[in-house]
Amino acid sequence: MAISLTVQNAVATVLIDRPDKLNAMDVDHLVDLRSNLAVAAADPSVRVIVIASAGEKAFCVGADLTAIRQNEAGAAEAFGMSLGESGERGLYIRLFDIASLQIKKPIIAAVNGYCLGGGLELALQCDIIIASEKASFGLPEVVVSSLPGGGGVPNLLRAIPRPVAMRMLLTGDRIDARRALEVGLITDVAPSGQLKALTAKIASRIAENGPIAVQLVKMLAVQSENLSQTQAFQLTELAWSVLRDTSDREEGKAAFAEKRKPQYIGR
Q: Does residue 141 have an active-site annotation?
């Protein structure tokens, strides 16, 4: 299986394993990626999801441009089809939209090597991006007279300062991990060979927290982005009210008072 799912200590890892293709993905692999993410999202034992990749050269370089595509439909025809069918018939960029899965749990992208095109578009939809010092990031579509079709333009503009984003988008140039950290695209840079360990440490730290609280914080971060201050505060109040009477909230207060590690159950 080129896309696999493992779960350990409340952390699900979805692994892209096509190092011979620099972890580029064709339609079948994109469908498998989405399926595994959906399984992890629905698993009550999972509190954090990590998207990682095999090999040292690349996290993902986007769509597999060497894949043979048959029975492609015209763009207008494919537009009205279901997600899966339109992907099979030529609108495969739709399959890069993992935000449409509406995953409530936090997602971490663990980036080693090239994170280009659709690969960066996948990472930009994650909540946290952690990178090895060998990583590089770019949306080079304009170089081949295309454009980032998986949300890369708006998502990059949200993630980093506009002038930096526009330079990357218009030139197709890459930035390295240190520059990505500097402009706020990623949160951490791991020394060579230590990406997996650093990712596990951060994922475990998140998984230790109250799972309902973590999911509501993610919901607030996503939903309040385009709300007015008043609407955002009202949504926050509702989310806080949901947490107030949960068993986990009582456990959090008790553990704090007793100076012990809390044991959350997600209720």
A: yes
Q: Are residues 95 and 181 in the same domain?
A: yes
Active site residue 121: yes
Q: Is 55 exposed, middle or buried (0-12, 13-18, 19+ CB in 10 A)?
A: middle
Instruction: Describe the strand order of the beta sheet including 188-190 as a list of residue ranges.
Output: 3-8, 11-16, 48-53, 107-111, 128-132, 188-190
Please write the tens of the pLDDT for every residue from 183-236: 999 999 999 899 999 999 999 999 999 999 999 999 999 999 889 999 999 999
Tell whether 103 and 66 lie within a shared domain. Answer: yes
Q: Which of 56, 72, 141, 258 is catalytic?
A: 141
**pTM confidence score:** 0.92
Is 182 found in the same domain as 135? yes
Best CA proximity match to 104, nearest among 187, 40, 188: 40
Q: Which of 56, 72, 85, 121 is catalytic?
A: 121
Among residues 207, 226, 243, the one where a domain terminates is 207
